[in-house]
Amino acid sequence: MHTLLVIAGGSVLLGVFVMFGILWGGGAVGIKAAAIAFIPLWLAISVTNLWIGVARAGYAVHEELPILAVVFAVPTAIAVFTAWRS
In terms of residue numbers, what domain contains 31? Predict the structure, then answer.
């Protein structure tokens, strides 16, 4: 359940980035720049989620790595698709 919430949060964050891209950059250029800017931030958030799972929740790194892959990949794939389509 936590994984789905984190993925949903990432998708909402991407939506916020895209909205600000439209407001500041205007049109397709702003959307593309916002989607590309989202990816490094989402990587940092995903790695922080991994660290919390290891340090606080007690999971091993090898247990958290597949979760990191899914949590990072889904919103990043949406961001890449959004940048590609605009």
Answer: 2-85
